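quick q for whoever's on today - can somebody do inverse folding on this one?? i tried earlier but teh output was garbage lol. tokens:
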């Protein structure tokens, strides 16, 4: 609950009460009254009581004119944004460290993609956002939600889990799949999982952002043709955007038998198939982009952010009630008392 004055400028009139309180009228013999009770009071008390009654009455009257109010005002954000599913490749090639930031520092693809995705999510406060991760198989990690803290938490937990799996795999010298969803790239399956969440026709707009760093692995037993998923997106009126991550002119690091770090050119089989990616997303009217470094990746997501505008709407609830009755009553009583007893009060001056 909050306290406020509806018309606070009236409070300037309280200066008149200060003038009344500090002014002391001249006293003469004519001002003494022949009342026994008044004669027993201290001589200086009468004018002071009179002035304080008048001043208090004026102050309370001014407060009443300013209309004191108790209540509260609440702002309610009207969710008027879009439904956006972010589909992220977590295949083993995401461990490749061929991306660099603006300062030239090397980064692996997983860190760059997850960091850029977090920035994108933080800019879309009024959207429902969900996450799908895919590699050999796919999973809807987070359904569409306005709770972006939960989405960010899923990103953090997934990155930690993936890195732990990669570390365990390399440490044990395993030749099998190391990622929690495998090591291959099943783009169509990831798109299919995401499109299951984008069926709400009441949404202001629906979009899918596919981020991948490799060519589709058609040899998988559960492989889904991404073009079929793309045609499904057209039926659902979902716009798809594709981002291919990887630097065709970059290098990846490895260590030789003596522990020395060696930089080798990024192999073609560890790069995204941009022609294929373009053919997938443009069916739905979307666009494809290639991110050769971290700044380019962030710029692409910023560009997609501008292509999918979000309405920002806030609804205000204001509930205040006037409480000027008691100040008005008490102020009036103070002035009436001062006027009624003015002869007696001045008589003891």
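ok took a stab at it. sequence:
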């Amino acid at each position: 609950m909050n306290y406020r004055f509806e018309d606070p400028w009236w409070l300037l009139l309280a200066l008149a009460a200060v003038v009344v309180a500090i002014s002391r009228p001249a006293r003469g013999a004519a001002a003494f009254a022949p009342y026994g009770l008044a004669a027993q009071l201290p001589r200086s008390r009468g004018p002071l009581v009179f002035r304080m009654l008048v001043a208090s009455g004026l102050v309370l009257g001014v407060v009443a004119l300013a209309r004191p109010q108790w209540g509260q005002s609440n702002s309610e954000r009207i969710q008027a944004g879009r439904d956006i599913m972010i589909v992220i490749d977590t295949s083993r090639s995401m461990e490749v460290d061929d991306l660099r930031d603006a300062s030239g520092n090397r980064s692996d693809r997983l860190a760059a993609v997850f960091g850029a995705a977090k920035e994108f999510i933080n800019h879309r406060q009024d959207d429902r956002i969900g996450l799908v991760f895919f590699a050999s198989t796919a999973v809807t990690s987070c359904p569409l939600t306005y709770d972006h803290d939960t989405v960010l938490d899923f990103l953090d937990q997934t990155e930690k889990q993936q890195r732990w799996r990669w570390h365990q795999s390399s440490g044990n010298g395993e030749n099998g799949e190391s990622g929690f969803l495998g090591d291959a790239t099943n783009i169509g399956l990831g798109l299919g999982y995401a499109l299951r969440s984008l069926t709400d026709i009441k949404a202001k707009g629906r979009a899918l952002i596919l981020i991948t760093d490799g060519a589709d692995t058609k040899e998988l037993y559960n492989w889904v043709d991404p073009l079929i998923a793309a045609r499904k997106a057209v039926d659902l009126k979902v716009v798809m955007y594709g981002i291919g991550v990887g630097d065709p002119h970059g290098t990846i690091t490895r260590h030789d038998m003596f522990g020395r770090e060696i930089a080798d050119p990024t192999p073609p089989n560890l790069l995204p198939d941009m022609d294929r990616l373009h053919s997938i997303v443009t069916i739905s009217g979307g666009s494809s982009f290639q991110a050769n470094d971290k700044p380019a990746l962030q710029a692409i997501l910023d560009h997609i952010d501008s292509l999918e505008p979000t309405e920002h709407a806030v609804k205000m609830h204001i509930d205040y009630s006037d409480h000027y009755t008691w100040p008005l009553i008490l102020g009036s009583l103070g002035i009436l008392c001062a006027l009624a007893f003015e002869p007696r009060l001045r008589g003891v001056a």
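fwiw The radius of gyration is 38 Å. also The chain has two domains: 2-73+316-347, 82-309. so keep that in mind when u check it
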